[in-house]
């Protein structure tokens, strides 16, 4: 079975990654995205298109035009816009998902690290080692702010 935390993280992050991915396609494709010839233009001017749309490393012009068309469909067409909206909102409100992920996350190890850094060190160490590495047990966590100040 897949790791549940990894899957939930991927679901939460995909909407953001999808937008970044499309942005990268637009940056890489640049003006090539809007200068891609239509199907009829390919048939009529295939010789010139073959000459001017040839890719680096001997890439066939038809293959290159096909890649640019696919990138345009994803980045600039009405279908691409609808797809982006779908991917952005399919998993629900992204801000709520971020907040819920934070609330469900086990923060105890991070809190212990900060507490060790704030406690005075022993034997010249800048801060005590964690218990699992032979360090002293931490005193109980004080939840009440007024007790911390006294």
Automatic annotation (TrEMBL):
<dbReference type="InterPro" id="IPR004925">
    <property type="entry name" value="HpaB/PvcC/4-BUDH"/>
</dbReference>
<dbReference type="InterPro" id="IPR036250">
    <property type="entry name" value="AcylCo_DH-like_C"/>
</dbReference>
<dbReference type="Pfam" id="PF03241">
    <property type="entry name" value="HpaB"/>
</dbReference>
<dbReference type="InterPro" id="IPR024719">
    <property type="entry name" value="HpaB/PvcC/4-BUDH_C"/>
</dbReference>
<protein>
    <recommendedName>
        <fullName>HpaB/PvcC/4-BUDH C-terminal domain-containing protein</fullName>
    </recommendedName>
</protein>
<dbReference type="GO" id="GO:0016627">
    <property type="term" value="F:oxidoreductase activity, acting on the CH-CH group of donors"/>
</dbReference>
<feature type="domain" description="HpaB/PvcC/4-BUDH C-terminal">
    <location>
        <begin position="2"/>
        <end position="118"/>
    </location>
</feature>
